[in-house]
Design brief:
single chain, alpha+beta, nine-stranded mixed sheet, five-stranded mixed sheet, about 25% strand, globular, binds adenosine-5'-triphosphate, binds magnesium ion
Amino acid sequence: MRLSQMLFVTLREDPAEAEIPSHKLLLRAGYIRRIGSGIYAYLPLMWRVLKKVSQIVREEMDATGAQECLLPQLQPADLWRESGRWDTYTQAEGIMFAMTDRQQRELGLGPTHEEVITTIAKDMIRSYRQLPLHLYQIQTKFRDEIRPRFGLMRGREFIMKDGYSFHTNEESLKKTYQDMAQAYSNMLRRSGLQFRAVDADSGAIGGSGSQEFMVLAEAGEDEVLYTEDGQYAANVEKAVSMPADVEPSPFASFEKRETPGTETIDKLCKFLKCSPTQVVKNVLYQAVYDNGITVLVLVSIRGDQDVNQVKLLNELTKLAGNYQAKTVLFLTVPDAEAQRKWAAKSLPLGYMAPDVADDYIAGSKEVNSKFLRLVDRTAVDLTNFVTGSNESGYHVVGANWNKEFPLPATVVGVRTAKKGDRAVHNPEQTLQSARGIEVGHIFQLGTKYSQAMGATYTSEQGEEMPFVMGCYGVGVSRLAQSAVEQSYDKDGIIWPVAIAPYHAIISIPNISDPQQVEVAEKLYAELNQSGIETLLDDRDERAGVKFKDADLIGIPYRIVPGRSLKTGKVEVVERATHKSHEILVDEVNSTLKQWIEAAIN
Ligand code: ATP
Ligand code: MG
């Protein structure tokens, strides 16, 4: 492609709308253009990158025996009602764009395709003989994200590869899952990314496992905890570790103490001269279940620990049956306004005890009249502990479970693991922390969707059995941008060769020099012909401007037919290192071929 004929517009200044380097660079270098919140046009250079990433993804998927298809983006609400997700997706989470057609039928724009694929399997897979089966697609997804940001990282319209596998048993699912873990590692490695596979939360879906593929970068929205020995890595939402040891309690007998102005653990411990490991703190949450019932949840946890809301949400989902519900719609720390809706009187916030009375709650049809009391494992074994007294300005010390306070019946593990904690697999290893961008997520779903939608096959024994399922997603457009987030310098983007929009760019320093033009044209034709994707900067611009643009758009090799033509050579500059080579015109093709092959494999 000739730059003189391309839509080629670069910006010198950072656009105000962008916060992180990759977003700024993709805008400045003319790869993407914002059309609306979370909505981007992929301009020609970006589209080439996306096609390359898609091709790598496709090759790795095909190699596992998965088959590509293309599913509809318009999805009938009825399918989502069958799985029980319509209300959650369109209202509670609100992530799905919903609409009504001219015949008053409700439809959604696909944020994901479990429902569509399960209905296909239900219709078309009759017998165990047709299993296992794995279908995937590469397609635009729609999600009405609460906070679209960072360009393609969190868009409302983005490209995803999503695959779904069907099995007769867990063992077969595990095999495909392992194949996918390998395929995902291959995709990311081939795309030139540094990444880590981590244990991930599988949320309410349960199943026996899920892993996320994290591209390591400061701008990542996720925190990854890992150990140096390479034996453990997990998303903080899921991570486990050993809490610090408990310090012995300085309090030998139970007493109520005046502790003015100590609504935080820090202030309390300073005031009482004790360790936070000797405090039972009681944290209030408000859960709204899918039947509209609000439940007030009191979590008692050791003072030096924090509640992990993802883990808590999973526990509350398990308890949904107790409230005649299926799932939790919202989990929040109730602010003053939320409290006004159910508090019968003002709560002793900062001074609550594990036995804070239920009459603080004005029960109603929508509000359960009793606290759901949970105790985290870290608080269970404490003795002679400090905790609230249910009276503002006072705490109790020297308290014991089942003496002064009944131990809550439900013991849960909801503490947040954090950097510096000892690892479970080896206490000599401590957890390290890194930021990651989630580019892929693989899931063992089990029978959640097949059961809900009545999708069954006939087993070898002649029984009707629900499919055992897995699902596997890669954010193709997010992956492409994360490559930039991991690889740029002050001059611009440095594309990994495998996904660069072009391999080389010939920048003619002076287009009125016929010799420069002649050599450039010859190389341009020759390189493209031999499969080296090459741009020709034949614009009537100063050499400096051309070099700056070539650096900004991040093409791996820049070829300059300049001064060295005297000796039959051109200058070839490597974008990543700025290293310059003088190469005989006749050897440019073979040299580049070698370099490109070495970089891609
Ligand atoms: P996140 O936690 O980042 O919201 P998710 O867990 O909802 O993502 P999945 O449903 O697992 O994402 O989707 C599979 C992949 O699609 C993700 O790993 C990510 O790479 C990509 N993805 C998800 N949401 C977006 C988005 N809004 N914009 C771009 N890519 C996305
Ligand atoms: Mg995810």
